[in-house]
Amino acid sequence: MDNRTPVFEPLEFERLPVEEQLARSRAFLARMRGRRSVRHFSTEPVPFELIANAIATAGTAPSGANQQPWTFVVVSDPSVKQRIRMAAEAEEKESYERRMSAEWLEALAPLGTDWHKPHLEDAPYLIVVFRQAYGLHTDPQAGKAQKIKHYYSEESVGIAVGMLLCSLHEAGLATLTHTPSPMHFLSEILERPPNERPFLVIPVGYPAQDARVPVIRKKSLDEIMVHIKG
Ligand code: IYR
To answer: Does 75 fall in a domain?
Structure first.
């Protein structure tokens, strides 16, 4: 059989009573409303399985042509975390002091961020997410690696990261979505191949005892939803 011929199987789907649907949906919303981006981490260790399960959850995400164009690099080695912090702070210092526009700095002002990134060392784990801009397939006969076009890789990795964040939050952990810029230093430090582009750095751990977060508000449902009714 040609491997491009689709093979179908019955969908496994549990139809829930509507009361249970509503209860689950409300409980999930309430849980997710408690998620915050955290910049003050405790150094307390975290069970590794929580990280592994979150990445496995991200791996269930839908993706363009089911190409799953992601690699999640987990860093717990203190010396590698330190190198990442040093490189990120060097880029961020340059960005905050010279590269970012006044408009950008003004947009960030309510969050109170700056170039200091101690959380990159304090958090017990960094999950560095890479987007595979294209795939590499090595044909055992030809021997030479072939480039495979990837579709919607940005969208795919974004969805997977959303699911990763939900899993980590649900598991009682704090996260930050950190985008040092530029971030090619991550490919060098973590020795990733050229088809993998750094996408996000996610420090994961327990919040510090005295962790503080900026007072911000999320838009209301009315502000974000448009319902076209028949
Ligand atoms: N990458 C910088 C700046 C930054 C940019 C945005 I947009 C943010 O929402 C937050 C920070 C940093 O990580 O500090």
So the answer is: yes
Report whether residue 52 contacts ligand 1, using a CB cutoff of 6 Å. no
**Residue 92 phi, psi (nearest 5):** -65, -35
Cβ of 138 less than 6 Å from ligand 1: no
**136, 195 contact by CB (below 8 A):** yes
Structure tokens at 142: 């030809």
- Domain tally for the chain? 1
CB neighbour list of residue 90: distance below 8 Å, 6 or more residues apart: none
Our answer on whether the CB atom of 76 is closer than 6 Å to any ligand 1 atom is no
Residue 88 is assigned to a structural domain of this protein: yes
Task: For residue 106, tell me if it sits in a domain.
Answer: yes
Q: Indicate whether residue 150 lines ligand 1 (CB < 6 A).
A: no
Distance between Cα 146 and ligand 1 center (Å): 36
CA distances from 107 to 65, 102, 178 (A): 36, 9, 16
What pLDDT digit, counting tens, does each position of 93-137 carry? 999 999 999 999 999 999 999 999 999 999 999 999 999 999 998
The model's pLDDT over 199-221, given as tens digits with 9 standing for 90+, comes to 999 999 999 999 999 999 999 99
Contact between residue 201 and residue 180 where contact means Cβ atoms under 8 Å apart: yes
Q: For residue 114, which atom of ligand 1 is closest to its CA?
A: 14
What are the residues facing 201 on neighbouring strands? 128, 178
CATH number, position 132? 3.40.109.10
Residue range(s) defining the domain that contains residue 83: 38-210
The answer to whether the CB of 179 is under 6 A from ligand 1 is yes
